[in-house]
Amino acid sequence: MFYREAGDFKTSYKADNQTFPIRFDRYRFYAVLAVAWLVIPFVINDYLANAILLPFLIYSIAAIGLNILTGFAGQVSLGTGGFMAVGAYSAYKLMTAFPDVNVLIHVVLAGFITAAVGAAFGLPSLRIKGFYLAVATLAAQFFLVWLFNKVAWFYNYSASGQINAPERTVLGVPVTGANTAPWAAYLVCLGFVTVAALIARNLTRGTLGRKWMAIRDMDIAAEIIGVNPLTAKLSAFAVSSFFVGVAGALFFAIYLGAVEVGEAFGIQKSFLVLFMVIIGGLGSIFGSFAGAAFLVTLPVVLKLVGVDLLGWPTDLVAHFQLVIIGALIMFFLIAEPHGLAQLWRVAKEKLRLWPFPH
Amino acid sequence: MQDAGTTITADGRTIGPVVMEMKNITLRFGGVVAIQDISFDIREGEIRAIIGPNGAGKSSMLNVISGFYVPQEGEVWFKGEKRPPMKPFEVARQGIARTFQNIALFEGMTVLDNIMTGRLTRMKAGLLAQMIWKGRAEEEEIENREAVEKIIDFLEIQHIRKTPVGRLPYGLKKRVELARALAAEPSILLLDEPMAGMNVEEKEDMSRFILDVNDEYGTTIALIEHDMGVVMDLSDRVVVMDYGKKIGDGTPDEVRNNQAVIDAYLGVAHD
Predict the structure, then answer these.
(1) What is the rounded radius of gyration, in angstroms, for the C-alpha atoms of chain B?
(2) In angstroms, what CA-CA distances link B249 with B24, B50, B142, B190?
(3) pLDDT at B2
(4) Domain membership flag for residue A298
(5) Domain for residue A314, yes or no?
(6) Count of domains in chain A?
(7) Distance (Å, rounded) from C-alpha B164 to C-alpha A216?
(8) Domain for residue A190, yes or no?
(9) Are strands B14-15 and B7-8 parallel, antiparallel or unpaired?
(10) Which of A308-317, A346-355, B13-22, B133-142 has the lowest mean pLDDT?
C-alpha cells in the first residue's frame, strides 16, 4: 500500500517534470541520501571503505560517464580505462605542480582535461559507428596507456614509473595520502557522486539529453529535426569523459594512492566499467549505480561465501568469480538486455498494482 | 504562376505567394539520373502533392528539399533567396520539417520526448542552466511542453503521452511522427507517403489531420502519396513525375485530364 500514485495529482508541468514524480520514490531517495551522508560516515571502517564503499562510489561516477556516452548517446567506447588514466595523471600533475591549490579543484580540473581529450578521441565517431567506433576507442585506450608509460614527464621522472598521491587536505583534514581517515575519503567521493548524479540526471532529461538519445535512436531523423550530429556526439564524448576523468582522479588520489598505469587503467578497466553499464542498464542513471554496486560487491560476497563459509581455497573462488561474472553477463544480455534498472522498473510497475494486478 | 498575389480557394483558405521554388533541378547517382531538369514552386499555405509511379524520383525530390541530397544542377529558392548547399540540420533550422516513408521515430524515447525533440531548435538554455535544471532550462522546458501539449491535443494522442514509441502500433506512430514535425512549427511541412500501409479508417483520420493542420496553423504542406483518391481530394496543386521528369503540373482536375499523366499511370509502351 506504500508505492502508490493514486491521489498524487500533478497540476503543473513543473511538478510533472520532477525526477521522482511518485511521492514514495521521492521520500525513498531522500532517505538514501540521509543514510549516505549522515549515518555511514559514523559507522565506516577501513575494510568497509576500501573493499566496498570507495570503489562503489568511484565506479559509479565512471559508469555514469560511460552510460552517458554509450547508453544515452549510443556511441560504444572501450577507452574508459584510458580516459580514467588521463584523469589520474592530470590530477597528479596538477597536485604536484600547484600544491597550494585545493585538491578538490584539481579533481574537477582533471575532469575538464579529460573532457578535452575525450572530445578529441570522439572525432572518429562522426564518420564511423558501432563496432568500428569501439575499435577506434580501443586505440585511444592503448595509446593513452602507452603514452603515460613512455613519457617520463607524466610521472615526474620517478624511478618506479609509478605516480603517488601526495598528502593533501580539505579544511585541514587529510583526504589523500597515507593519513587519510576512511570517513574523509568516503565523504569526498560521496560528494562527487551526488553532484555527478544530479548533473547527469538534469542533462539527460533536458535538451542535451534528447539530442543524445535522438542521435542514438536514429541519427538521420535527428538531423532532420535540427540536431547537429557534430556537436551532439562531441558533447556526449566531452561530458562522458569529464565524469570518467573525475572518477580516474579519485581512483588514483583517494582510493589507490599509488598507480602504475598499465595495471590500474588497462583494458580490463574499460571492460569492467562497460560490464557495469550493461548489467546495470544502458540509458539509466540508476542503472549505473546498480551495475557498479553489483560488480563491486559480487567478489566480496563470493569471497565471504566461498572462502569464509565453505572453506574453499582462495584461488578457486577467484576463478569461480570470473565464471560467474561471465555467466551473469550472458544471462543479462539474453534475459534482460536493459539490465538491473529494467528489472527494478518492472518490479515497481508490478508493485504499483499489487495486490490486485487486474 | 509567378505572380506574388494571393488567391482564395473554393473552401475559403488563403494561398499566398511562392515560398519555395525549385529551378531546373537535376540529380544524378553515377550514371542514373534520378531527377532531370525539374522546376516547380510551392506557394504559401497550399497543399502541394508530388505524385508519380514507383521510381519516378519523388522521394529524391523531397530529399533535395530537406538537404539530404545536393543536386548536381539547379537551384533551390526559399523565401525569395537562393539557398546555398546545406546540411539537413541547417535546413531544419530554416523551418522545414518532414516525416519519412518508413517511420523514423526515436524508439527508445516516450511520445512526449519524441515530440519535444521537434522543438530542439527553439531551446537555447546554456549548459550550466541545463546542469542545474534552473532558470532558462526549466522555463524553456515548461514553455515548450505547453506548446507540445497543444499538438498532442490536436492530434488526439493524449493517452499515449508517456508510452515509449517502440510499443505503439503503426498508425499511431505515423501520427506521432506528424506531431514531431508539427512541433517545430515549420513554414513548410514535407510528408513522405503519410498514408502508406494504412487502412481506410486510418487514412481518413490522417487526411483529416493534414487538412486541419493546413487550415488551423496555415502550414504549407508538400506531400508524396500513392493513393490517387486521397491526393486528388487533398491537394491544391499536383506535380506529376515519371522517370525523373516532370510530366504534369496543375490542379487535380488539370492533371487528371493530362494525356501524359494518364499514359504514365495506365501504361503505354515507352520507347
Answers:
(1) 19
(2) 14, 9, 44, 18
(3) 43
(4) no
(5) no
(6) 1
(7) 15
(8) yes
(9) antiparallel
(10) A346-355
**What is the pLDDT at residue A286?**
92
B22-61: per-residue pLDDT in tens? Answer: 999 999 998 889 999 999 999 999 999 999 888 888 989 9
The amino acid sitting at A238 is: A
Q: What is the pLDDT of residue A1?
A: 46
Q: Which three cell numbers stand for residue A172?
A: 585541514
Give the integer Cα–Cα distance in Å for A254 and A266.
19
| Chain B residues closer than 8 Å to A218 by CB | 104-107
Q: What is the ipTM of this complex?
A: 0.86
Angle at A248 between CA A247 and CA A254, to 5 degrees: 85
Instruction: Find out whether B11 and B43 touch, Cβ atoms under 8 Å.
Output: no
The three cell numbers of residue B4 are 506574388
Q: φ, ψ for residue B97 (rounded to 5)? A: -115, 160
Domain boundaries for CATH 3.40.50.300 within chain B: 7-95+186-266
The residue with cell 493542420 is B213
HSE-CB of A342 using CA atoms within 13 angstroms: 14
Per-residue model confidence (pLDDT) at position A110: 95
> Nearest by CB to B113, which of A198, A210, A218?
A210
Domain-embedded: residue A188: yes
- Centroid of chain to Cα A160: 29
User: How close does chain A come to B132, measured CA to CA in Å?
Assistant: 6
Shortest Cα–Cα distance, B135 to chain A (Å)? 12
3-class secondary structure, A163: strand
DSSP string, chain B: ------EE-TTS-EE-SEEEEEEEEEEEETTEEEEEEEEEEEETT-EEEEE-STTSSHHHHHHHHTTSS--SEEEEEETTEEPPP--HHHHHHTTEEE--SS----TTSBHHHHHHHTTGGG----HHHHHHT-THHHHHHHHHHHHHHHHHHHTT-GGGTTSBGGGS-HHHHHHHHHHHHHHT--SEEEEESTTTT--HHHHHHHHHHHHHIIIII--EEEEE-S-HHHHHHH-SEEEEEETTEEEEEE-HHHHHT-HHHHHHHH-----
Domain of residue A211 covers: 22-264
pLDDT tens for residues A313-346? 888 888 888 888 788 878 877 887 778 888 888 8
Strands B47-51 and B220-224, by their bridges, are: parallel
Q: Which CATH number fits domain B7-95+186-266: 3.60.21.10, 3.30.420.40, 3.30.450.40, 3.40.50.300?
A: 3.40.50.300
pLDDT digits (tens, 9 = 90+) for A112-167: 999 999 999 999 888 888 888 999 999 999 999 999 998 889 888 888 888 888 88
Joined grid coordinates for residue B174: 505515423
Burial class (CB in 10 A: 0-12, 13-18, 19+), A322: exposed
| A206/B125 Cβ within 8 A | yes
Q: Which residue in the block uniquely carries the three cell numbers 481518413? A: B204
Joined grid coordinates for residue A85: 588514466
CB contact under 8 A, B109 and A224: no
- By Cβ distance, the residue of A13, A198, A229 closest to B146 is A13
